[in-house]
């Protein structure tokens, strides 16, 4: 076992039974405890943690370990008011209160997709810490279903409500950071076409939102379970990356600007 991986399981389980040699015990406890869940994509082990101080720095969280954050079942505002910046007719504001759920802190990386699905659908060069792209919506949902069947952990695409609740992180503005769409402000949180260059960043390079989730806005579009995609990408104007906005590919089409973020259902 790699040293950083051993350290994670000790942090989670030394003296508590969590992270012990009994995977069924680990899974049972993880299903009911922890602000964070860490799922090992190689052996299926789940570890519950109250904090992850090295989330931004630990390379394992972009490789075999999938980090998921508990999003509480609180009342949240979705959509965007008519007449506000770039608002569309299908973005009517509404209040929702979905049940609590776990969502990945990062967009799924190339390394994680290889562990999960065993394929390399992207064609662009780059490190394995880049978000996985090049998968169609149909291919993505099939791969998640196959992984879930293999280990008994349900990994799915977020529903539109789950995705927007997670991306907004309780914010009342157009963006998770407010109503300021200036490129210099947005660049703190999001990789969009407002910046020079092409292609996404490795995941987790920008500032996280209030829920501790990275790259919900920009970098790559993220599939939702209804076949839509949310959040905009490195190739899009910031106005397209608003949490209320959505777009869609055909179910069997793929793009180097579209990836995913998963939801975990214990």
Give the topology.
Layout: H1 3-13, H2 23-30, E1 36-40, E2 46-49, E3 65-71, E4 76-78, E5 94-96, E6 101-104, H3 110-117, H4 137-151, E7 154-156, H5 160-168, H6 183-186, E8 221-223, E9 228-230, E10 246-248, E11 258-259, E12 263-265
Parallel strand pairs: 8-11
Antiparallel strand pairs: 1-2, 1-3, 3-6, 4-5, 6-12, 7-12, 8-9, 9-10
Structure description:
- By secondary structure, the chain is of the alpha+beta class.
- The protein has one domain: paralog of FGE (formylglycine-generating enzyme), CATH 3.90.1580.
- It contains six helices and twelve strands.
- It has helices at 3-13, 23-30, 110-117, 137-151, 160-168, 183-186; strands at 36-40, 46-49, 65-71, 76-78, 94-96, 101-104, 154-156, 221-223, 228-230, 246-248, 258-259, 263-265.
- The chain has a six-stranded antiparallel β-sheet. It has a four-stranded mixed β-sheet with strand order 10-9-8-11, with helices on one face.
- Strand 8 (221-223) and strand 9 form a beta hairpin.
- The radius of gyration is 18 Å and the shape is globular.
- The protein starts with a helix and ends with a strand.
- The model is unreliable at 1-30 (pLDDT under 50).
């Amino acid at each position: 076992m790699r040293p950083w991986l051993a350290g994670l399981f000790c942090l989670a389980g030394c003296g508590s039974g969590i992270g012990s040699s009994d995977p069924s015990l680990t899974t049972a406890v993880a299903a009911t405890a922890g602000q964070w869940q860490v799922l090992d994509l190689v052996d299926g082990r789940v570890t519950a943690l109250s904090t992850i101080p090295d989330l931004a720095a630990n390379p394992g969280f972009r490789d075999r370990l999938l980090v998921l954050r508990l999003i509480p079942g609180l009342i949240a505002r979705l959509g965007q008011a008519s007449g506000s910046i770039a608002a569309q007719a299908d973005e009517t504001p509404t209040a929702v209160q979905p049940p609590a759920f776990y969502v990945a802190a990062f967009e799924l990386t190339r390394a994680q997709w290889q562990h999960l699905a065993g394929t390399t659908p992207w064609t662009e060069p780059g490190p394995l810490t880049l978000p996985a792209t090049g998968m169609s919506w149909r291919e993505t949902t099939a791969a998640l279903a196959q992984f879930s069947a293999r280990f008994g952990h349900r990994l799915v695409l977020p529903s539109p409500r789950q995705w927007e609740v997670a991306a907004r992180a309780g914010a009342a503005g157009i963006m998770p950071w407010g109503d300021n769409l200036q490129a210099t402000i947005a660049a703190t949180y999001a990789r969009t076409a407002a910046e020079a260059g092409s292609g996404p960043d490795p995941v987790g390079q920008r500032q996280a939102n209030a829920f501790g989730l990275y790259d919900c806005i920009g970098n790559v579009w993220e599939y939702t379970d209804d076949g839509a995609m949310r959040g905009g990408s490195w190739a899009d104007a910031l106005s397209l990356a608003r949490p209320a906005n959505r777009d869609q590919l055909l179910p069997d089409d793929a793009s180097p600007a579209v990836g995913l973020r998963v939801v975990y259902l214990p």
